[in-house]
Amino acid sequence: MAGPRDDLFEASMHYKIAGTGQYLTVIEAIGPQGRYFRSWVSDRLDGEWRPLADTVSDPFAGADNVTFDGRAWSQGVSHGELIRSGYDQTLTIDPCKPLQFLYQGLEAHEPDTDYINLPYRLGLLTADSTNPVSRLCRTADEGSAP
After folding, report:
1. What are phi and psi for residue 135, nearest 5 degrees?
2. Which residues, including other chains, have CB under 8 Å from residue 142's CB and lie 6 or more apart?
3. What local confidence, expressed as pLDDT, does residue 39 receive?
4. Cβ atoms of 38 and 58 closer than 8 Å
5. Residues 9-45 as b or e (16 or more Cβ within 10 Å = b)
6. How much is the pTM?
7. What is the 3-state secondary structure (H, E, C) of the chain?
8. Pick from 2, 1, 3, 6: which is nearest to 76 by CA?
9. For residues 38 and 11, what is the distance between their CA atoms, to the nearest angstrom?
């Protein structure tokens, strides 16, 4: 992958998608409305990665697809990780269950705030509608177990 530094900034994570034989990778990027995550899928970790939700206007998680109960306290989505099905090193996620993404958000602050004093806090995103990962869920009706 090539392009500007801000398109592939940091916080890369790779997950096995249960029941699909596929893998998901998410990578943090920086856009005009703050940090966000892009995503790709592949049949192999060393295979060809295909875009899933990979643009600032169609992100995996970012200002364009995150809503808040109450006021929006964070504009960006930074340093995130999906809540997984287990705790082993396969980092398996279940596409048939609502995705949850623990992330670091940044509260509003004065422009000249020292980096060490930035008001970061944790947030938990929960998918409340169909998304690119949930579309990979194979139900018993389709002839595969989830």
Report:
1. -70, -15
2. none
3. 95
4. no
5. bebebebbbbbbebbbbbbbbbbeeebbbbbbbbeee
6. 0.86
7. CCCCHHHCCEEEEEEEECCCCEEEEEEEEEECCEEEEEEEEECCCCCCCEEEEECCCCECECCCCCCCCCCCCCCCCEEEEECCCCCCCCCEECCCCCCEEEEEEECCCCCCCCHHHCCEEEEEEECCCCCCCHHHCCCHHHCCCC
8. 6
9. 11
Residues 6+ apart with CB under 8 A from 110: none
pLDDT for the residue numbered 2: 58
Residues 6 or more apart in contact with residue 23 via CB below 8 angstroms: 14, 15, 16, 17, 41, 42, 43, 44, 45
Place of tokens 């990962």: 133
Q: Which residues contact 44 (CB under 8 A, 6 or more apart)?
A: 23
The tokens of 111 are what? Answer: 């422009």
- CATH H superfamily, domain 5-133: Glycosyl hydrolase domain; family 43 (2.115.10.20)
Give the chain's length.
Answer: 146
98-137: pLDDT as tens digits? 999 999 999 989 999 999 999 999 999 999 888 889 999 9
- Number of other CB atoms surrounding residue 65 within 10 Å: 17
